Amino acid sequence: MLILALAASCGPAREDEKTPPPVAPIHEKELVIHGDTRIDPYYWMNDREDPAVIEYLEAENAYLEAMMAHTDDFQEALFDEMKSRIKQDDESAPFYSNGYFYYVRYMEGQEYPVYCRKKGSLDAAEEVLLDVNELASPHPYYNVGRYDISLDNRWMAFTVDTVGRRQYTVMVKDLATGDIKETGIMHAGGDVVWAADNSTFFYTSIDPNTLRYYRINRFNIQNGQEPVTVYEEEDETYYYIGVSRSKDNRYLMINANATLSNEVWMLEADDPDGEFRVFQPRRRELRYSPVSYNGKFYILTNHNAENFRLMEAGAGNTGISNWREIIPHREDVLLERVELFDDYLVLQERERGLRQIYIENLLTGTSHYLPFEEEAYTAHIGVNEEMSTPVLRYNYTSLTTPVSTYDYNMESGELTLVKQQEVLGDFNPDNYQTRRFYVGARDGTEVPLTLVHQRGVELDGNNPLLLYGYGSYGSSADPRFNINLLSLLDRGFVYAIAHVRGGQELGRRWYEDGKLLNKRNTFNDFIDCAEFLISNGYTNPNRLFASGGSAGGLLVGAVINDRPELFKGVIAAVPFVDVVTTMLDESIPLTTAEYDEWGNPNKKEYYEYMLSYSPYDNVSRQAYPNILVTSGLHDSQVQYWEPTKWVAKLRVHNSGDSKILLYTNMQAGHGGASGRFQRLRELAREYAFLLDLADKI
Q1: Three-class SS state of 649
Q2: Is residue 369 part of a domain?
Q3: What's the predicted TM-score (pTM) here?
Q4: Residue 431, SS3?
Q5: R_g of the chain, CA atoms, integer Å
Q6: Which residue numbers are catalytic?
Q7: Which of 14, 360, 418, 487 has its CA 20 to 30 A from that of 66?
Q8: Residue 174: which region, alpha, beta or left (left: phi > 0; alpha: psi -120 to 50)?
Q9: Angle, nearest 10°, between helix axes 604-613 and 520-535?
Q10: What CATH number is given to the structural domain containing 561?
């Protein structure tokens, strides 16, 4: 049935009118399953090749520009302010690997990094591996995925995405001559790894239709032959496969991943033409991660251990029946990562929402934890490429402490600050205060809440406050320093992170309690944290803002359907909001792979539960807060039409006078703009949206 929605044409909005762009004539889509009928009037937007769709997106961008034109000068000032804090000619902390020190540096005024190395000493001459600024010059978007150096230090293989859809081409650079060669390999994943023969590398292929990582291929740069497939994943629920080389360089490892399980295959790195063999056959809900060490493997696994435990097995007997426990499971501690050195074992753990680093001397059996003193922080194991060293590289940060890289001598106990992120200007961390609370949710669960604000802020309920959340895939929203956030804090904002269920802050149970048929816990936790902040005088509903991206966009979208009156404004970045339609469409990237996260709506129980919270399906006639939605035309994770349809539907049903705006980056994907200053301009727009609503311009 042909209907007219809002208007009959789709031309760009005139700035003087400042009215939402009209929607073109559309065919409503009838979606029927389980005896239930849903009508989607905006389904036609699901075609990026349709000129009318592109015209509509451009009209939305023009409307946003018109509605925010009064902030143009302020956006420019914000951009200059944030840019002025950045040390533009900065470089990363160098790490040592196979005879070279590797690092990344930026040049004054340039958008992209320069990858470099020095042989043997930091005083040696610099060798530029890749100047991404030169490579990116013909492209509006350019991203180097990963790279690997052959063990003879002669060849560099790297992957490049020039669209933003995370489909890479593979390039090879001869580091002796400087020549960059095209391999002809396209539709690759971001990873690439050399075998020990220095002529063969392995890489992942992506299905160009579903964007599922499904093959591992072998390519020899010397023989001129086509790539050879060495592994193909047929189970569509195994959505990501990758290939890597073990830290001791003995093995090539293929890791096939589903949401709840994985399977590892291995091959000696000096036998690239050999056949991979399975480490331990896949089992439902079994996850394991083996690390090669001195003729055996240490294995981090959830086998009979929800929060994981550490096992070991001989290299010739890697099946699960041969695993022997080294560190047992603990109900209150999540084991996240293991790092091995010749004489030391290092574990990254998480307890009560905060990370810890455990160190054990494998020769003496003595052990200790690194001390961290802030109330809320993030610490994690850094880049440690060498086995034969007593020095551990780790990183530390908090909402008030810039990112800091440390070298810790596990033998002597000496701690060296290698590099701390430099903040130009008059930044003083003592001017800010960070706090960690445990908020009592409606079901009695304690939800961690971390916040930061200027020291001495008055708890009179009048502070503008930005509350961030994510809560999916077991991804934890750890408190990290954000140099750009100072532009909000210095204008009186409080910033808070709600560590809602669905993440992994409090272990695997925290994740399980925020997924599938428990998903509403994620939304309730966020609302309960918002009400805690209001009741404790940090803010009020006319000064409270929310933000979330991707699955975090789903979070804020569901929350404003339930409690729109709680928030003055919302930023939803690349939001996953049309949950039911997407999860019913197996042709869309990631759909079947995510049944274990969201549920399979082909089953009525999951369909009905998903339908009860899907932000797009639950838009209703009520007054919504001000909303800024961002999207990327080439997004491979959340297709652009989800936020586009959501905005159109919100406008029709909004009974208030709030602004509902959409910005689509027509040259990027899920991560937005690729250049560092381009990203700052997008952020300046978002901050101007918030500060305008908070009367802080």
Answers
A1: helix
A2: no
A3: 0.91
A4: helix
A5: 26
A6: 550, 635, 670
A7: 487
A8: beta
A9: 30
A10: 3.40.50.1820
